[in-house]
Write a structure and sequence with these properties.
Blueprint lengths: L1 H34 L88 H6 L5 H4 L10 H14 L4 H7 L6 H6 L1 H4 L3 E14 L3 H7 L4 E7 L5 E8 L8 H4 L5 H6 L3 E13 L7 E8 L1 E2 L26 H15 L5 H13 L7 H5 L8 E15 L3 H7 L3 E8 L8 E5 L16 E22 L4 E14 L3 E3 L8 H40 L22 H9 L1
Parallel strand pairs: 3-5, 9-11
Antiparallel strand pairs: 1-2, 1-4, 2-3, 4-5, 4-6, 7-8, 7-10, 8-9, 10-11, 10-12
Helix pairs in contact: 1-15
C-alpha cells in the first residue's frame, strides 16, 4: 500500500503537467486565431468532382480540330427549368450521366496569309503595289467629284486585297486618326495609306459590283456607310462587312435609304482601319474623304462595347462547335477588351445591372438554354472551381497585337448548374490563388464575364453499348470571357478563446482535485499501518527476538497431527 501511495503521487503530477501543456496549447492557438488576419468568410467547398481540361492552345503547325462528324451529334445542353420568382427557383432534374469532363479542343489557328514578306514593306500602298494596285491605278481617282465606275473598280481591287492583309501588318501600318486638313492639302501623298477612323454611322447603302467583278473578286455586295466624326466632319467608308444588327430592316426597303429613313434609324458608334482613296463632296468648302475598309467595327453603349470591343465579331462565332478559326479574332479581342477593365469593375457593373432587374442573383438557365440571345451579355456567378490552369499563348501575332502571352481557364460549378461546368477564360488571377485540378482541388470564387458561345467539347471515352466500342462523346457548355475572379480562400474555423480558457481552467482544477485525493489517500494508508498492523507485531519495549522464547527447529513439526489422531 505504501508503494501504491507513491505511484499515485507520481501519476497525479504527470497528469497535472499534461493538463498544463494542453491548456497552454489551447490558449496559444486561440490567441493566434484571434490576432491573425483572416480571409473573407466563405462556406466550405463542395465535394470534388472529376473535371475535364478546357480548350487549350494549338501548336502553330497543327490544324484546328475537326468538327464532330454527322454520326456523332453533340449532346443537347442541359435543359433547365426557368425559376419562378417566388418561391426560390425550382431546380431542374439532374442529367442521368455523370461523365468526366471534357478533353481539350485545340485553339483556333490563324488562316494562312497570302501576303508577301512584310519586313521590306513600309506601308499599305507599297504592299498594294505588289498586288497589281500600283500608282497608275491610284491616279485614276479624281478629287471633288462623286465616284465613277472606273474608280469603283479600283476600290473593289483594294477591298479584295485588304481582306488578305495580315492583321498585324494592318494595325502596324495604320497611321493616326484622319485629319481633314491633311487630306485636303496633300491628297496625292495620302492616297493608298491607312488611317484610323472613328465616329457615328448615320446612314448605310447596299451596292453590288458588276457581274464580272463578282466572279473575279468573289465580292457579291458591299456597303457604303456615312461616318460622322464628333466635330461633325463626314466621311464615306466602302466596307465589305458590317454588323448584322445594322442591316435589320434595311434589305427589305431596298439598297438605299431616303434622308427621312436615315434620320429615323439609330446611329452606331463605329471605328475602322481604312485606305484613303479620294475627296468627294457636294460642298467644296468641306470635301468628304472616301475610304475603303474590310469591316466597320461596332462599339455599342454596353459594358462590352464601352471596353472597345468590336461586338460585330460575335456574328462570326460558330455556336455549338469547338473553337474554330472563325472564332479566333473574337476570342482574343474579348480577352483584350476585358484586360482594359479595372479588377473588380466588371463584378460591380454586373451587380448594378442585377439590381435593376429586381433579382438577387444571375441564373445560368439562359446560358445553357438560350445561348443565341446571350452573346456579349455580362453576368456574375459564384460557385466552386474544380479546375484552374494557365494556358500559354504561342501565336506571335496575338502577343504583338494584344500583349497576351497567357491566360487562365476555369471550370465553374454553381448551385443551379446541376454539376454541369461553365467555362471561363480569364486574363489573370488574384495574388496567391493556387491553380490545379483533380478531386482535391476546390476553390470558391465569384467571377464576372461576357458570354461568347456554346462550346462543343469531347468528354472522356465512354463505352458504346450498341457497337461495343469506347468513343469520346461530344458535350456542350457555355464559354465566357472574364477579367479576374474574386477568391474566397478556405479559412480555419474560428475558436472561442474565452470558452477554451474556462474549459482549460476547469480541467486543471479537476486534475488538482484528483492529485490531492490520491495524496490524502496515501497519507491515510500510512497512518493505518502505523496504528494497527505495525502495533500488533511490534515487540514489547526492551525485548529482542532472542528473548521472546521462539522455538526454532531445523525440520517440520508434525506432533499436533499424532495428538489429534489419538484423541479420535
Amino acid at each position: 500500500m505504501a508503494h501504491l501511495g507513491g505511484k499515485a503521487s507520481l501519476a497525479g503530477c504527470a497528469i497535472l503537467f499534461v493538463g498544463v501543456l494542453m491548456v497552454s496549447g489551447v490558449w496559444v492557438e486561440g490567441r493566434g486565431a484571434e490576432t491573425g488576419e483572416l480571409p473573407p468568410e466563405a462556406p466550405p467547398p463542395q465535394e470534388a468532382l472529376p473535371e475535364a481540361p478546357p480548350p487549350r492552345e494549338t501548336p502553330a503547325d497543327e490544324e484546328p480540330a475537326a468538327a464532330p462528324e454527322p454520326d456523332e451529334p453533340a449532346d443537347e445542353p442541359p435543359e433547365v427549368e426557368t425559376p419562378a420568382p417566388e418561391p426560390p427557383p425550382a431546380q431542374p432534374e439532374p442529367q442521368p450521366e455523370s461523365e468526366p469532363e471534357p478533353e481539350p479542343e485545340p485553339k483556333p489557328e490563324p488562316e494562312p496569309d497570302d501576303a508577301e514578306s512584310l519586313p521590306a514593306l513600309t506601308g499599305a500602298r507599297a504592299w498594294l503595289r505588289g498586288h497589281d494596285v500600283d500608282d497608275s491605278q491610284f491616279e485614276r481617282f479624281v478629287d471633288g467629284v462623286p465616284m465613277d465606275g472606273g474608280e469603283r473598280e479600283v476600290m473593289l481591287d483594294v477591298m479584295y486585297w485588304l481582306a488578305h492583309l495580315d492583321l498585324t501588318a494592318l494595325e502596324r501600318w495604320t497611321g493616326g486618326k484622319w485629319q481633314p486638313a491633311e487630306l485636303v492639302q496633300n491628297p496625292d501623298d495620302c492616297r493608298g495609306e491607312l488611317y484610323f477612323l472613328t465616329g457615328q454611322v448615320t446612314g448605310i447603302e447596299i451596292d453590288a459590283p458588276v457581274p464580272e467583278a463578282i466572279e473575279r473578286l468573289d465580292i457579291e455586295r458591299y456597303y457604303i456607310c456615312r461616318l460622322v466624326r464628333s466635330d461633325g466632319q463626314p466621311a464615306l467608308v466602302f466596307a465589305r462587312t458590317v454588323p448584322n444588327a445594322w442591316l435589320e430592316g434595311l434589305e427589305d426597303q431596298g439598297s438605299a435609304e431616303t434622308e427621312t429613313e436615315q434620320s429615323q434609324r439609330p446611329s452606331y458608334r463605329a471605328s475602322a482601319r481604312g485606305v484613303f482613296l479620294k475627296l468627294e463632296s457636294d460642298d467644296p468648302q468641306r470635301p468628304t474623304p472616301v475610304f475603303v475598309a474590310t469591316r466597320l467595327a461596332w462599339h455599342p453603349d454596353t459594358p462590352l462595347g464601352n471596353l472597345g470591343m468590336d461586338v460585330g465579331l460575335l456574328d462570326d462565332v460558330v455556336q455549338r462547335r469547338h473553337l474554330t478559326s472563325e472564332d479566333r479574332e473574337c476570342f482574343y479581342q474579348m480577352l483584350n477588351a476585358v484586360g482594359r477593365a479595372e479588377p473588380g469593375s466588371l463584378v460591380r457593373r454586373a451587380q448594378e445591372q442585377l439590381r435593376g432587374t429586381g433579382q438577387h442573383q444571375y441564373s445560368v438557365v439562359p446560358l445553357f438554354n438560350d445561348a443565341e440571345n446571350q452573346q456579349g451579355r455580362l453576368v456574375c456567378l459564384r460557385g466552386v472551381t474544380r479546375r484552374l490552369i494557365r494556358i500559354p499563348v504561342g501565336d506571335p501575332d496575338v502577343v504583338e497585337r494584344f500583349g497576351i502571352d497567357h491566360y487562365y481557364e476555369m471550370a465553374l460549378y454553381t448551385e443551379d448548374s446541376q454539376e454541369n461546368p461553365l467555362w471561363f477564360c480569364l486574363r489573370d488571377l488574384p495574388e496567391g490563388m493556387p491553380t490545379g485540378d483533380g478531386p482535391r482541388y476546390a476553390e470558391e470564387v465569384q467571377v464576372a464575364g461576357f458570354f461568347m458561345k456554346t462550346w462543343a467539347y469531347r468528354s472522356q471515352e465512354t463505352r458504346d453499348e450498341a457497337e461495343g466500342e469506347r468513343r469520346a462523346r461530344v458535350r456542350l457548355a457555355p464559354l465566357l470571357i472574364g477579367r479576374r475572379p474574386i477568391w474566397y480562400p478556405e479559412q480555419p474555423p474560428e475558436r472561442n478563446t474565452t470558452a477554451a480558457a474556462i474549459a482549460g481552467g476547469l480541467f486543471v482544477l479537476a486534475l488538482l482535485g484528483i492529485w490531492i485525493g490520491l495524496w490524502h489517500y496515501g497519507r491515510s494508508d500510512r497512518k493505518f499501518h502505523e496504528r494497527t498492523i505495525a502495533k500488533t507485531h511490534a515487540l514489547d519495549a526492551g525485548l529482542s527476538l532472542d528473548e521472546i522464547g521462539l522455538d526454532a527447529q531445523g525440520k517440520p513439526d508434525f506432533r499436533h497431527l499424532s495428538e489429534s489422531g489419538e484423541g479420535e
